Amino acid sequence: MRRIQLPTKVSTFLTLVAVLLALFLGGCETPGRRVTFTQALPKQHQIGANDTITVMVEAVQGVSVVDYEKQRLAQSIKQIIDAKKMNNAVSGPKHNYELEVLLTQYEKGNRFARFMLVGLGQIHIDAHVSVLALPERTKVGGFDFERTFARGGIISGFTTFEPVEEEFAEGVAEAAMKGCALPYHYWVVC
């Protein structure tokens, strides 16, 4: 049996390609969008096109979040709701709501650690969200939302906190508008 030997340059190139592929694809992201409804959101209180909403973001004691980050997150959630509520087929009279987002975990993680090994340097944003009907501030729904980013490899080494925060904002907005009827890429517990 004759053995085929590749030239040294080709062999080195193929080894380099294999190593780079392993680094780029060196991890898999956990399906980190979990919604657990603590109080089911009735159909008549899902946010629709006619409704107005305000968003307040606060953090539990021990969770360090700067005021401008809270404001940025609240503004992001509101903008997403305002953009998507026109497509929400909920009909009925106009309601005013306040979305109260209480951050229970807000960790930006470490890009270098994520680059080195899957599971290290994870990004976590968790919150308890209450949907309040105004002006009485009656709680009409509530859910816990968790967003985790734990991918490894080069791609995650370049992942910043902002895209994960934006996905968190989008998930909170969708849960407030659709209740238990969320798309497939969420783990939903109703």
Note the total helix count.
Answer: 5
Q: Describe the biggest sheet?
A: 6 strands, mixed
Q: DSSP strand (E) fraction?
A: 25-35%
Silhouette? elongated
**What does the oligomeric state look like here?**
single chain
The ordered H/E elements are HEEHEHEEHHE
Q: Would you tell me the structural class of the helices and strands?
A: alpha/beta
Strand order of the largest sheet: 2-3-4-5-1-6
Q: Strand tally, please?
A: 6
Averaging pLDDT over every residue, what do you get?
76
What is the helical fraction, as a range of percent?
25-40%
Q: Extract low-pLDDT stretches.
A: 25-31
Write the layout of secondary structure elements.
Layout: H1 8-24, E1 33-39, E2 52-59, H2 67-84, E3 96-107, H3 111-116, E4 123-133, E5 138-149, H4 154-157, H5 161-178, E6 187-189
Helix pairs in contact: 2-5
Please sum up the structure shown.
Helices cover 33% and strands 28% of the residues.
Keywords:
190 residues; alpha/beta; 5 helices; 6 strands; 28% strand
Protein described:
It is built from five helices and six strands. The chain is α/β, with parallel strands linked by helices and 190 residues long. The longest helix has 18 residues. 29% of the residues are buried.
